[in-house]
Structures are given as structure tokens and as C-alpha cells.
């Protein structure tokens, strides 16, 4: 597909990307991406969400030139990832899930080496390292070996390494996994600063829906290699009319019985089972919940908990993928 001016000016654009992998032992090829398309504007945080195996990691690998799409196109900072991969690499930062810093070097040495690899002169590299150590609150640990760092400190250093050459586009793959609440809050603040003050475009993958809700101006949800929903967090939540009811029972057998019993209650819609919990939607959840509880009690179904709330991103995710995001754990995608 020929790129348009909009593709090039959007900073980050994917168009109809397709990627397949061998199925093994004579099986059909696995279609990891099946026409993925999205666009991110300058200074925006785009959250890429999806179940394990949905295509998130494959998308990131292609956009960072670590893999090639079978078909489709993508532009990063105005450059074609297929024909201008070196130009793309000069303009992106990539912070992967796995640590990139050498644990046997100091924080300062890691940053200076990264800067030198990106072509900075020795004096410039030292100055940039000092600047980033200060920005991430690592001055006191600058000359300690990275193997002595806490998890939060090491993750901050990884992000600093990804920023050493001042990229236009930053890819953050699960940046706060395993961090304590304070370190996570510090990372959120830095992401907001990069997008707001430096107008850096950031593609974020995360397993924390509150993180996506707070940081992302736009969300792209992928499932089975396709984009199934796209929009701002507020817009996606507003599409879900009414309230969310969640009723937890004692076992999966009882939740099946609960779904059958409540299926006859016309005020409830969009029924879904999530483990031992039944989720449904209603226009007036506060009025419907007592009725639903009465139906289940009359059916002899024990209720562990029951709540009603406004729509959340987990509800959005469940609607479009059939899974609760809170149930998704780790893994490659």
C-alpha cells in the first residue's frame, strides 16, 4: 500500500500489516498479524493492549525493525520501516521487557556507552549521562555497579538508556512490571513529561489497565492479530451504555447456573463469565442488582460478592476480546 502524506506526518503509522510464522510439522502457517492498522500523533501516548498471543510483541518488533512484515506498510518519524530501517533506528528508543544494562558496569558507564554507540562524542556522552542520571534520580547510584540496583532503579536506567539519543518515538514494553508503587508512580510522571514537554510519541504495552487509562491518549486493542477496538479510554468506556454488575459465586459450576438463571432477567445484557464471576450490564445497575441477588438466592446459589460500577477499561477489554484483562499474565504476544 502506498503511503499518504498523513502516513508520513503522523509520526507512527501502521497500515494493513500482515505477519505469518511457520506452523511446524506440516501445519498451516500461523497468522500473527492480520491487517493491523493504527496511527499515533506527535506527543501522544498510544497504549497497545491485547491478550497473550494477540500480536502486540510482533507489532512492536516490526515497527522497531527487528522483524519484517509479510505485507502492509509502516512509517516511523516519516521513514519507511521496510526501505529505510537505519533511518528509523536513529529516531526510535526501545525499552524491552528484559534488562539491557550491563550489571557489571556502573549506571554512568552504561549510559555513556549507549551514547557513544549512538555516535555522541565522549564529552557529549558524559554530559548526556549526567543529565539522565539526574532526571531519573540516580545521581547517588551513578557510580555503583548496576547489579547492586533495586528493581525500580534498574528499570529507570533501562528507560534512560532508551532516551540517551533523544528519540522522536519511544517504545515502552511493559515498563513498570515488577515495580513498587513509588517507582511506578515515578515512571508514570516521566512518561507524561516526555509526551507533554518533549512532544515524544510513545507506544506503550502494559498489563496494568490503570496505567493505560492514566497515560494513553489513544488505545488500540488487538486480538487474534486484528485491531478489535480503537479510541481514547473515555470514548471506549462511554460506548458501554449503563452500569457493570459483577456477581461472584463459589464455583464455576455455580456461575454457569447463575448465568442461566439471570438470563431470564430482561434488564441484564452482555452476559459474560470471568472465572467464578458473572458480569453483565444494565441501564440502572443499582436497581437491578437487588433483583438479581434475589433470583440467585431463590435458585439456591450462594453469592460471595456483588458489585455495581460505572464502565471500566476491563469491561471494554472483556467486550472486545471475551476475556478479562486482569486474567492475562505475562507471556509473549
How far is the N terminus from the C terminus? 25 Å
What structural category characterises the helix and strand content? Answer: alpha/beta
What gross morphology would you assign? globular
Strand content: 25-35%
Describe the structure.
This protein has 333 residues and is α/β, with parallel strands linked by helices. The protein is 36% helix and 26% strand. Strands 6-7-8-3-9-10 form a six-stranded mixed sheet, with helices on both faces. A four-stranded antiparallel sheet has the order 2-1-4-5.
Task: Give short descriptive properties of this protein.
about 325 residues, alpha/beta, about 35% helix, globular, disordered N terminus
Amino acid at each position: 500500500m502506498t503511503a499518504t502524506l498523513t502516513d508520513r506526518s503522523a509520526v507512527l503509522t501502521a497500515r494493513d500489516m500482515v505477519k505469518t510464522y511457520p506452523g511446524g510439522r506440516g501445519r498451516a502457517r500461523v497468522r500473527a498479524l492480520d491487517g493491523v492498522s493504527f496511527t499515533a500523533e506527535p506527543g501522544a501516548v498510544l497504549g497497545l493492549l491485547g491478550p497473550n498471543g494477540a500480536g502486540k510483541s510482533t507489532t512492536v518488533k516490526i515497527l522497531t525493525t527487528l522483524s519484517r512484515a509479510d505485507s502492509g506498510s509502516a512509517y516511523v518519524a516519516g521513514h519507511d520501516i521496510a526501505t529505510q530501517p537505519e533511518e528509523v533506528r536513529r529516531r526510535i528508543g526501545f525499552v524491552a521487557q528484559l534488562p539491557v544494562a550491563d550489571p557489571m558496569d556502573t549506571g554512568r558507564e552504561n549510559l555513556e556507552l549507549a551514547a557513544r554507540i549512538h555516535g555522541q562524542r565522549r564529552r557529549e556522552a558524559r554530559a548526556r549521562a549526567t543529565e539522565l542520571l539526574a532526571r531519573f534520580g540516580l545521581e547517588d547510584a551513578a557510580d555503583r555497579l548496576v547489579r547492586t540496583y533495586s528493581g525500580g532503579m534498574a528499570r529507570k536506567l533501562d528507560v534512560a538508556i532508551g532516551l540517551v539519543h533523544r528519540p522522536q518515538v519511544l517504545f515502552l514494553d511493559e515498563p513498570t512490571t515488577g515495580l513498587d508503587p513509588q517507582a511506578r508512580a515515578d515512571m508514570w510522571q516521566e512518561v507524561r513529561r516526555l509526551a507533554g514537554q518533549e512532544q515524544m510519541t510513545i507506544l506503550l504495552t502494559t498489563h496494568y489497565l490503570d496505567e493505560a487509562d492514566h497515560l494513553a491518549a489513544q488505545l488500540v486493542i488487538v486480538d487474534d492479530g486484528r485491531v478489535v477496538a480503537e479510541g481514547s479510554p473515555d470514548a471506549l468506556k462511554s460506548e458501554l451504555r449503563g452500569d457493570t454488575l459483577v456477581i461472584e459465586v463459589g464455583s464455576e459450576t455455580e456461575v454457569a447456573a447463575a448465568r442461566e438463571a439471570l438470563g431470564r432477567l430482561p434488564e441484564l445484557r452482555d452476559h459474560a463469565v470471568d472465572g467464578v464471576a458473572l458480569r453483565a450490564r444494565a441501564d440502572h445497575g443499582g436497581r437491578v442488582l437487588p433483583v438479581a441477588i434475589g433470583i440467585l438466592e431463590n435458585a439456591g446459589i450462594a453469592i460471595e460478592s456483588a458489585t455495581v460500577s460505572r464502565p471500566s477499561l476491563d469491561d471494554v477489554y472483556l467486550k472486545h476480546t471475551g476475556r478479562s484483562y486482569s486474567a492475562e499474565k505475562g507471556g509473549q504476544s
